Amino acid sequence: MVNYIEAATAPAKNTGAIRIYGQDAFAGMRKACQLTARCLDELAAIVGPGVPTDTIDRFVFEFGMDHGAYPATLNYRGYMKSSCTSINHVVCHGIPNDKPLREGDIVNIDVTYVLEGWHGDSSRMYPVGEIKRSAERLLEVTYESLMRGIAAVHPGARTGAIGEAIQVYAEGERCSVVRDFCGHGVGSLFHDSPNILHYGRASDGPELREGMIFTIEPMINLGKPHVKVLGDGWTAVTRDRSLSAQYEHTVGVTATGCEIFTLSPGGLDRPGLPPLQG
């Protein structure tokens, strides 16, 4: 049985109940998420061949500090960086280091800022210089998967409708959907209920209700969906070493659909890719 609870009266921990937020919370989330989106916009001019991911991470930390925000990942369960940078066959949770990016790489940068108690969580893919057409196509399919998942959000639907929309499209494009990681409730907590699976059936999962806030963040592979976590306890990679991509938005369920809190203010939701037609 799924329980829903008014966020204003909920305990400050994940109890398994789904929080229902009010308009004040939506306003706070807009501020936090737009700060994250602005940071990701700025990174489009920084990512390039020869740039170490530590340089990206340092920028994320300093940008947050300059705007009164703290990176949620820093010191989270022992994680010691302000962002995640996942390159090529790294599915998620790649740890920034001093190794420079190379021409032809693709990198996901995942940033969450805590601003005035609200968590703004988003990630984007960045091509590093000129990339192969197969990599570009993976980015296009992954972004479209995200947007199809978002289009399925409205009160009365179930979370499974998000997963079905993503899975049907991605697999129809001869790609695979990672099962090991999922989206999640977010707001006053970094990770909260419900889990948002990126595969499944429209009839599965809890009902979406106005006031819910969560991330949608499909990880799509060119090869098979299977992943493994490396010895550092964080870095997840494709078992077959095929390329993987991910885009992520934070959304809030409204009376008629949803609001995307993390849209790019500069129109850079898919940096480095050709403009969408229409």
From TrEMBL:
<dbReference type="GO" id="GO:0046872">
    <property type="term" value="F:metal ion binding"/>
</dbReference>
<feature type="binding site">
    <location>
        <position position="110"/>
    </location>
    <ligand>
        <name>a divalent metal cation 1</name>
    </ligand>
</feature>
<feature type="binding site">
    <location>
        <position position="121"/>
    </location>
    <ligand>
        <name>a divalent metal cation 2</name>
    </ligand>
</feature>
<keyword id="KW-0378">Hydrolase</keyword>
<feature type="binding site">
    <location>
        <position position="93"/>
    </location>
    <ligand>
        <name>substrate</name>
    </ligand>
</feature>
<dbReference type="InterPro" id="IPR036005">
    <property type="entry name" value="Creatinase/aminopeptidase-like"/>
</dbReference>
<feature type="binding site">
    <location>
        <position position="121"/>
    </location>
    <ligand>
        <name>a divalent metal cation 1</name>
    </ligand>
</feature>
<dbReference type="Pfam" id="PF00557">
    <property type="entry name" value="Peptidase_M24"/>
</dbReference>
<feature type="binding site">
    <location>
        <position position="248"/>
    </location>
    <ligand>
        <name>a divalent metal cation 2</name>
    </ligand>
</feature>
<dbReference type="GO" id="GO:0004239">
    <property type="term" value="F:initiator methionyl aminopeptidase activity"/>
</dbReference>
<comment type="function">
    <text>Removes the N-terminal methionine from nascent proteins. The N-terminal methionine is often cleaved when the second residue in the primary sequence is small and uncharged (Met-Ala-, Cys, Gly, Pro, Ser, Thr, or Val). Requires deformylation of the N(alpha)-formylated initiator methionine before it can be hydrolyzed.</text>
</comment>
<feature type="binding site">
    <location>
        <position position="184"/>
    </location>
    <ligand>
        <name>a divalent metal cation 2</name>
    </ligand>
</feature>
<keyword id="KW-0031">Aminopeptidase</keyword>
<feature type="domain" description="Peptidase M24">
    <location>
        <begin position="28"/>
        <end position="255"/>
    </location>
</feature>
<comment type="similarity">
    <text>Belongs to the peptidase M24A family. Methionine aminopeptidase type 1 subfamily.</text>
</comment>
<feature type="binding site">
    <location>
        <position position="191"/>
    </location>
    <ligand>
        <name>substrate</name>
    </ligand>
</feature>
<protein>
    <recommendedName>
        <fullName>Methionine aminopeptidase</fullName>
        <ecNumber>3.4.11.18</ecNumber>
    </recommendedName>
</protein>
<dbReference type="GO" id="GO:0005829">
    <property type="term" value="C:cytosol"/>
</dbReference>
<dbReference type="InterPro" id="IPR002467">
    <property type="entry name" value="Pept_M24A_MAP1"/>
</dbReference>
<feature type="binding site">
    <location>
        <position position="248"/>
    </location>
    <ligand>
        <name>a divalent metal cation 1</name>
    </ligand>
</feature>
<feature type="binding site">
    <location>
        <position position="217"/>
    </location>
    <ligand>
        <name>a divalent metal cation 2</name>
    </ligand>
</feature>
<keyword id="KW-0479">Metal-binding</keyword>
<comment type="subunit">
    <text>Monomer.</text>
</comment>
<dbReference type="GO" id="GO:0006508">
    <property type="term" value="P:proteolysis"/>
</dbReference>
<dbReference type="GO" id="GO:0070006">
    <property type="term" value="F:metalloaminopeptidase activity"/>
</dbReference>
<keyword id="KW-0645">Protease</keyword>
<dbReference type="InterPro" id="IPR000994">
    <property type="entry name" value="Pept_M24"/>
</dbReference>
<dbReference type="InterPro" id="IPR001714">
    <property type="entry name" value="Pept_M24_MAP"/>
</dbReference>
